[in-house]
User: Fold this.
Amino acid sequence: MPLIYDFMPVSLSDYPGVVACTVFLPGCNFRCPYCHNGPLVTQSPRGNVAESALFEYLEKRKNLVDGVCVTGGEPTLWSDLGDFLEKLKKRGLKVKLDTNGSRPENLKKLLHKGLVDYVAVDIKAPPEGYNLFTKQKEHVEGVLKTVELVITSSVDYEFRTTVHERILSLEDIKAVARWLSGAKRYVLQGYRYSEGVIDPEFCGKKPCDKAFLERAKEEISEHFGEVVIRS
Assistant:
């Protein structure tokens, strides 16, 4: 089973329309300077929570919690992730998976087995801008394959981009929109500082300008079924 770093007992925002428990899995193959889960990424993977404790909590709250958001880190790095998700599904829970998209074959297996109800794929930048987040060409190729996989699948999904003025310009966001054009849902997430940010010197403490997000939404709305701002 994957190591469980921590879990948030109840979230009303991590899984759209679902009262969820959010489970954090450690380890990641990207290094995003604005990542707010720094300890999950920069430290050696370790488990702080026993799996039995999580499932005990879910059993006690089965009349409150309808789903589980599995996030990280990068959950698809865990080869036995499917076994964990299967346990959740057998308990009648909906499963949302957050991923950076770098492991399309792993995601494909999970979708084929019906273990995921909702996928959120983090899109960092236009493909040519991924060198800030990963130095591995195969990671970027994986993201391209994941985008195609998700769009053509029957699973509910969103693509989402964390917007930071030092990383993405309006033209960058428009390039992403052209790449993902035709997708069901695209989310613009405004950067917000937190204590766990990997590179606070790079990103600073100033949140993303809401007016910039609104302008970006207006510029790209024609490409998507829905554009959502989260800030």
